[in-house]
């Protein structure tokens, strides 16, 4: 099981979430879930929005916990919106091009989960990608293919709709191939203004996803904690697993739900796969 996080708010250094919390993403990468035999050591990535025309990417196939370059860069840059990911491979090679986030123009994408029976459905899924987008696929993961299918089905114009059409298409192809539960996913995607996240599974069990509570409410709960004085009222963090164990800080996103973290009020809506 991979793990990822997304941050949106006033600019901060990514190390504040990657390294400093008790259960930071780097600490999580060293451990594994109860039903997973290996840690998240098959690469990592950090993608951020800064001063460039499109988001920056820093990815490596090495384990996140041992890479001094990641520690250095995450301590130096500041960003109002970034995505980070630690990878546990599910059958595809450990290589840099298979590390998340994936990028296309202003968009970035991270994923935790898998397409079941990927070897049986891969050809049909690949052939559905818009030819204008095909050359953007550099690796061999189901995750990168999901991103390009979502782009094909209108992600840039209708982000949640594009994700729903991607999920519906993957499920339809998988079930035609005899796969009972084709899709397991939590995804994060951003255009640099909003952060979209969705939790969904074709079967009864969906990987976890959490969003941080209102910073104003958290300050009232923990007035002595200086860390929460530092974050802006607009700050939100979306995570596969909580970074610290503080009651009231995290709210679990229900299965079959999408959230939109944006300036002003955030949104929470049902996530329903549909035919493209």
TrEMBL record:
The record ties this protein, via Pfam families, to: GATase_4
Cite the entry's keywords alphabetically: Glutamine amidotransferase
Q: Which InterPro entries match?
A: EgtC-like, Gamma-glu_amide_hydrolase, GATase_2_dom, Ntn_hydrolases_N
Q: Which residues form the signal peptide?
A: none
Q: Which PROSITE patterns match?
A: GATASE_TYPE_2
Instruction: Please state every residue range assigned to the domain named Glutamine amidotransferase type-2.
Output: 2-264
What name does this protein carry?
A: Class II glutamine amidotransferase
- The species this protein was found in: Pseudonocardia humida
* Species lineage: Bacteria, Bacillati, Actinomycetota, Actinomycetes, Pseudonocardiales
């Amino acid at each position: 099981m991979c793990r990822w996080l997304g941050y949106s708010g006033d600019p901060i250094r990514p190390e504040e979430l990657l390294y400093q919390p008790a259960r930071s993403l780097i600490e999580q990468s060293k451990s594994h879930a109860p039903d997973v035999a290996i840690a998240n050591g098959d690469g990592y990535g950090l993608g951020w929005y800064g001063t460039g025309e499109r988001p920056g990417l820093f990815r490596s196939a090495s384990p996140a916990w041992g890479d001094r370059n990641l520690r250095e860069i995450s301590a130096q840059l500041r960003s109002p919106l970034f995505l980070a990911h630690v990878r546990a491979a599910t059958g595809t090679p450990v290589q840099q091009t298979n590390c998340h986030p994936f990028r296309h123009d202003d968009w970035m994408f991270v994923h935790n989960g898998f397409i079941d029976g990927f070897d049986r459905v891969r050809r049909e899924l690949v052939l559905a990608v818009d030819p204008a987008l095909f050359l953007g696929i550099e690796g061999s993961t189901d995750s990168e293919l999901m991103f390009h299918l979502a782009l094909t089905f209108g992600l840039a114009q209708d982000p949640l709709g594009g994700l729903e059409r991607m999920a519906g298409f993957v499920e339809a192809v998988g079930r035609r191939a005899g796969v009972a539960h084709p899709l397991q996913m939590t995804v994060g995607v951003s255009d640099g203004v909003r952060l979209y996240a969705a939790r969904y599974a074709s079967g009864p069990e969906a990987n976890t996803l959490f969003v941080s509570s209102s910073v104003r409410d958290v300050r009232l709960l923990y007035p002595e904690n200086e860390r929460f004085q530092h974050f802006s009222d607009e700050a939100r963090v979306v995570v596969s697993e909580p970074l610290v164990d503080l009651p009231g800080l995290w709210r679990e996103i229900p299965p079959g739900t999408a959230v939109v973290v944006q300036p002003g009020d955030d949104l929470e809506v049902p996530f329903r796969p549909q035919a493209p």
